[in-house]
Amino acid sequence: MTTEQGSPADWYFEDFEVGQVFRTQGRTITEADIVSFAGWSWDTNPVHTDAQLAGTGRFGQPIAHGVLGLSVAMGLASRLGIFERCSIALLGIEGWHFTHPVVAGDTVSCAVHITGVRATSNGRAGILDRQFVLTNQDGTVVQQGAIGLMVSRRPAA
Question: What superfamily would CATH give domain 13-152?
Fold first, then answer.
């Protein structure tokens, strides 16, 4: 990623344009991630938490919670540092699809595509339409969807 605007932390609405793609680092999903997520979310469905039962099921092993994958995608995008300073509010998650299971040992990374850029009706902020594509180590798309974000405009000089 080239940042002619300065460091990613210095980005504002004016620095984004349709067609930009930001790629994250990878993160390996562990069994501990899945167990921890099950504990704090209270989602202890056996497909996530019972290795013996899950082993006889459709995927042959426990799978990560879908929302765990979404959370990791958001976290990976956050680590880019591009949206941190300028973020005002997450606007929604639309059309999120779970297209392939994520299992312990998968290393996932995320591409964030800027698909729309527009000023708010009062002009004091901007809206970024972003398409997230989460892939595993084989390049298989495991999850994807749109996540809109309201961001700050550059302060007047």
Answer: Hotdog Thioesterase (3.10.129.10)
